[in-house]
Each structure stands twice: as C-alpha cells, then as structure tokens.
Design goal:
single chain; alpha+beta; Beta-galactosidase, Chain A, domain 5; ten-stranded antiparallel β-sheet; five-stranded antiparallel β-sheet
Length: about 400
C-alpha cells in the first residue's frame, strides 16, 4: 500500500488514528479482561490451558492476541485499547489491532475497493469497506480449540465492478506436534509455544465471473504485534539476479528507509520492528519464500509467520495509490513498522505488522480460493530458539540480532 501523503493529510491521519502506546507489555489475562468489557470475545485453548488465543466475531473473526503461558503469560498481539474503549467508529479505518485480521485487496489503483469510482487517491477519499472493518462475522461453530465464521456481502471497485462475496474463515490452535512439524524441526526443550492458523476462503457468490479486465480481489491477512527496541523483522527471500526475479524488496512506500533500519542481503532482509519509524516493505511472489518472522530480544520471543503460496502463480493485486500500468504486479508478503507519520506527531500504534496475501482471485460463479496464514510464537533461551530460527527462517538468532548492525 504505497502512501506518500502530503503534510496536511499526515496531520489528519495522526489526529484520526493515534492511540497511546502501552508502557509495558500486558499479560494475556489482562488483555482478555479488557476486551471482554467492550466487545464479544472468546478464548481458544489447548488441553493444558497454556496456549491460548482470543478471537472476536465482532471484528470479522479476528485473532486479537495469543499467549504461550496461560493468563499470566505475555500477550503477543497489539491491541488498540484507546479506540476500543471509546466505543466509536472512525470514518476511514478502525485499527482495533489483532494478530490475524481478515482484509481484502486491492487497496489502490483502478480496481481498488477502498476508493469509490472517480475518487482521488488521497486519504480524504480512502475508506475501508465496512464488511472488513466494522461489520461482524457470523459464528458458524466454536469449540475449545477452533472457531468458524462466515459472512456474505457486496463490494464495488473503483472501476464500477460489483463483487458478490461469501467468506468462510476458520481459526484453530495447532497442536505442538503440528507446530514443530511446520517449523521443520523436532521439539526443542525449554521452548514454549503457541501456534494458530486461519483458513480463509473467498467465494464468488454472484452470477458473473471475476476477470482481470474488470478487476480481481485477493485475501489479505495482517498481524499486528507489540514492538520493542530490540525487535528485528526477518524476511527470507529467493536469491538470484534481478534480471530474472525482479527487485529483492520494494521499500519506498513512504520514501527511502535509512540503512540502519533496513538491510537487504542476497537471501534475507532485516527491518527494524521498534515502532519508532514508519516504514514498509513488500516481497513479490518471485522472491517470497512464504515465510517471514521477527525476534524480540528483550522478551526472547521468536515469531514465525507461514502462509500458502501457490507455486508458479505471479498475479497478485497491486495496491499502489494511483492508476496502475501493472495492476497484477503486487506483493505476496509485506511488513510494516509503525512510527510518527510526521515529526512530532503520534504514531498510529505503535506496532509492527507481518502480512500475507493470496493470489488475485479470478473466479467463476460458485468457485472459491483459499489462503492459509499461520502464526507461531516461541519463547525460551536464545540457545534453544536458535535451533528454531535456523530451521524456519534460515538464519541464527545471532544473525537476526546483528542483522541491522553489520553491513
């Protein structure tokens, strides 16, 4: 989502979206108690009650936060307490927070679902569709460790194409054996974890085919996490020449990122996740390895996000805020670090995001596309977490901690 806002719009954005950062990380129990005062939320848990996740149908089946240590354990998701407690809806977007939220793309361009036909590609004309912002999803069923949600709605893009949409969203906690298998290593002693995934299905519920000529939708999953001064975002990439694979990273969404905050190597990218500098990167499907992560050295928390990415598919919607020459040259993965949008202004959070997208959904009536997004948090000694980092991200904990230092 490329947003090079003029100063007046940045000021408006700050006044509209700013929230007070938490002085310290909250416990899972504290966050859930807060949420239950303001919104319907229920907990998923493993048999022992150590791994938990809080989910809200009111926020489109969103996973608000999770923990590996029961109620007293660290709460991994970022929650916008100020906005939720206000009980108010904002006109452009409601950044309630959450580790796994369901959105749809594209955000910008001639096929945007965030801009009405003929609107200017400016913040004043940018509106998140209510269906993915303020309207609740229906709870189809819920049990101890999983929940299923559904919704039906219509969207119209910038070009005037109407989409009749049906969404099926399933959220479940993963058993430790499944989590370790997905991480590519045997269980490591001394490491506690919580793992969950969302299975998101987008269906063409109308009478007309969705075509590239009139615009396509995509599933877009975004996770918002609490930053720390020591958090580094890690994105493994496919190595190779740009002449064959394209750029390693798109990093100019908000202007150039200072070199001490972004390091691009042959097979991995490091980005600061400290919540102090507004920056965003995008990874094309040619470069993406369908995994990204972060390491918070202050709290010794390793986060791994994995997602489905069909091999050989390169049509991904482009969310650039302008009429586009290549509307299907978008990103498969993104990461965002929050920060003040202008000198002296408050940040939106602060938080950082790990995001994934499905390919563009060219669907005939009645057909569907499914995208899986998996989040795994691990806590423990660095020596134990090092084994996981090497297996899941291809780098060591030391590599991550030094990634933004050594150039």
């Amino acid at each position: 989502m490329k947003r090079n806002f003029p100063a007046a719009i940045l000021c408006f954005m700050t006044l509209t979206f700013a929230s007070s950062p938490r002085a310290a990380a909250a416990s899972f129990g504290d966050d859930v108690a807060f949420l239950k005062k303001h919104v319907d939320v229920f907990e998923l848990s493993d048999k022992k009650g150590a791994a938990k996740a809080a989910v809200s149908a009111a926020y489109q089946g969103r996973v608000m936060t999770s923990t590996a240590g029961s109620d007293a354990g660290l709460s991994f998701g970022w929650i916008n307490r100020e906005l939720i407690a206000s009980g108010k809806y904002l006109p452009h977007m409601n950044a309630f927070g959450g580790e796994d939220r369901f959105w749809l793309g594209p955000e910008g361009g001639q096929f945007s679902i965030f801009f009405a036909k003929g609107a200017k590609f400016e913040l004043a004309d940018w509106f998140t569709p209510a269906a993915i912002d303020t309207l609740p999803f229906e709870v189809v069923r819920a049990s101890r460790d999983r929940a299923r949600f559904a919704a039906k709605f219509a969207l119209t893009n910038y070009s005037g194409t109407r989409f009749d949409v049906a969404v099926d969203r399933q959220v479940r906690l993963l058993r430790p054996t499944a989590a370790w298998k997905n991480l590519g290593t045997k269980a490591v002693d001394g490491v506690s974890l919580v793992a969950f995934e969302s299975k998101n299905t987008l269906k063409n519920d109308g009478a007309n085919a969705w075509t590239k000529e009139s615009g396509l939708l995509s599933i877009w999953i975004l996770g918002m996490f609490t930053p720390s001064p020591s958090t580094t975002i890690v994105v493994p990439i496919v190595p190779g020449p740009e002449s064959k694979l394209g750029v390693k990273v798109t990093s100019d969404y908000f202007g150039a990122i200072p070199p001490e905050r972004l390091v691009v190597r042959e097979d991995v990218i490091y980005l600061s996740g400290d919540g102090n500098y507004r920056s965003k990167i995008g990874i094309s499907p040619m470069r993406s390895k369908a995994v990204l992560g972060s390491y918070d050295a202050d709290n010794r928390v390793l986060t791994v996000v994995q997602f489905s990415q069909p091999e050989g598919v390169t049509d991904y919607v482009n969310s650039l805020w302008k009429l586009q020459d290549n509307p299907y040259g978008g990103d498969a993965a993104n990461s965002y670090n929050d920060g003040p949008p202008a000198p002296g202004a408050k940040p939106m959070g602060p938080f950082y995001e790990l995001e994934s997208s499905s390919p563009a959904a060219a669907l005939r009536p009645g057909k569907s596309l499914t995208h899986v997004h998996r989040t795994i948090h691990l806590s423990g000694d660095e020596s134990a977490l090092d084994t996981v980092a090497r297996a899941a991200l291809g780098v060591s904990i030391a590599d991550i901690k030094n990634g933004l230092k050594a150039r």
